[in-house]
Amino acid sequence: MMQVMGISGLPGSGKSLVSESAAAKGAIIVSMGDIVREEAKKRGEGSKETAVNLRKEHGEYIVSELTIKKIKKLQEEGFDNMIVVEGIRSHHEVEMFKENFDNFIILSIFANQNLRFERLKKRMREDDSQDFNVFLKRDMTELEFGMGTVIALSDKILINESDIDSFYEKINEFLEEMGM
Predict the structure, then answer these.
(1) Rounded to a whole number, what is the distance in angstroms from the first to the last CA of the chain?
(2) How far apart are CA 101 and CA 30, in angstroms?
(3) Side-chain half-sphere exposure of 51, counting CA atoms within 13 A
(4) pLDDT, tens digit, for every residue of 57-114?
(5) Domain range annotation of the chain
(6) Structural element, H or E, at residue 134
(7) Topology (CATH) of 4-177
(8) Closest Cα to residue 2, out of 31, 28, 33?
(9) What is the pTM of this model?
């Protein structure tokens, strides 16, 4: 039976490191952020703007609905390895995934604010900022979506505040627990 797992965490916490490790072990990664970025490209908007607008236009559940549709298509195509949903941001989304997939679990990644800001400054993705106040505002937007609740209600939390090798060890231990 296919396991579907969600990953949550604030920007720069290390979600993509977990996804990459799971992918290396055969999981398929479905990034909710990528779904928003694809939609933003179609609309000619920034991804933050699109994330807010999609929810205004189609309700709280739109990004999870698009993600669930994508996962069900993978199921129909016969894929039965783990599917990792990266970037779950609201309790609404968690509820939708739990309704659609048996044994759905949430893994949250935590790292403190200053550490995450330093990582984002180095990462330099389109929605990353070099300005601490802009970074803080992005955190607040994420938390307003309900990410704090998702993290609080997680099935498992990994702390990512030491060196990268230690974090990879934690990730691999967790994936082994998950049967990967």
Answers:
(1) 13
(2) 14
(3) 19
(4) 998 789 899 999 999 999 899 888 899 998 888 888 899 999 999 999 999 999 999 9
(5) 4-177
(6) helix 132-145
(7) Rossmann fold (3.40.50)
(8) 28
(9) 0.84
